[in-house]
Amino acid sequence: MPASLAGRLVVAISSRALFDFEEENQVFEASDDRAYMQLQLQRLDSPARPGVAFSLVNKLLAFNAHEPLVEVVILSRNDPVSGMRVFRSAQHFGLPIERGVFTRGTSPWRYLKPLKAHLFLSTNEPDVRSALQAGVPAARVYPHSARASAAHPNEVRIAFDGDAVLFSDEAEQVFQRAGLEAFQAHEREQADTPLAAGPFKPLLQALHQLQLASGADMRLRTALVTARSAPAHERAIRTLMDWHIEVDEAMFLGGLAKGEFLREFEPDFFFDDQTGHIESAALHVPSGHVAAGIVNAS
Question: Same domain for 39 and 114?
Fold first, then answer.
């Protein structure tokens, strides 16, 4: 009987999101893939440094202490030769990653479907956009983001923006079309009407199920970090209640820069649809851009 990933939270991640391959990437951009391959082969016995999403992956895999609940798969534009260094680096850090797909320059996003992935993290924006269009929660990792805090070794902390991430961009469209006052009025009138699901609702649901199923010592803590403010806060909260999903913290910042608030929350990863918010956040925490909704339509 073939192996199955059914019942697991499946995270697909590019090698550059998991490990710090920025120096090697400069060689690739300045030369060609063969120079890159040769450099990776020369460094085969030198483990790569942890990358932006390393903490998130490391902690999620810790949920497997008693049963296999999380599967992490490398899904990379790297060539198979360079893939050897990725697996060796994972082994060095004790990451039990066994599966990988290496496509040598072509987009690997199409393999998300057979993996039934709940999340795809990559530094390649076209791959992320393709994944989102296929219905897979996906984010472009900012490789120069600050690394995660080591202050919460037994707790996975994840922060999400609301509109166009957890929720649809219905309200954001009103804001873009008619401004803040119209947005506030619309959300006040629709306070009892749940928002439609955004691209990251399936991930939030899967994380919720992971927490319920886990017998490990690891815990999950989530935060909604949004530019909404009262009275628009109520519809967001009621939407989560309608989904029977709880978040541990909610920050309704009314347009304040998110970075310093996220610095205090100390997430292992933050997801937002607006590059301005990501640039603010990346100074303090690991961050990824969700290229969804009206603000990313172009």
Answer: yes
Residue by residue, DSSP assigns 26-86 as HHHHHS-HHHHHHHHHHTTTSPPEE-TTHHHHHHHHGGGGSS--EEEEEEESS-HHHHHHH
For position 84, which CATH number holds? Answer: 3.40.50.1000
Residues 6 or more apart in contact with residue 197 via CB below 8 angstroms: 166, 167, 168
Residue 202 CB contacts under 8 Å (≥ 6 apart), including other chains: 118, 137
The last residue of one of the domains, among 116, 141, 166, is 141
The token duo for 69 is 């609940």
CA distance 135 to 147: 28
Question: How many angstroms separate the CA atoms of 240 and 247, rounded?
Answer: 8
Which of 20, 161, 169, 272 is the catalytic position? 161
Neighbours of 56 (CB within 10 A): 26
pLDDT of residue 215: 74
- Name the domain boundary from 109, 141, 173: 141
pLDDT tens per residue across span 258-276: 999 999 999 999 999 999 9
**Residue 67 covered by a domain:** yes
Q: Which domain holds residue 163?
A: 155-296
% of the chain at pLDDT higher than 70: 99
Using one digit for the tens of pLDDT, what is the confidence trace for 41-74? 999 999 999 999 999 999 999 999 989 999 999 9
Q: Does the active-site annotation cover 161?
A: yes
pTM: 0.95
How many structural domains does the chain have?
A: 2
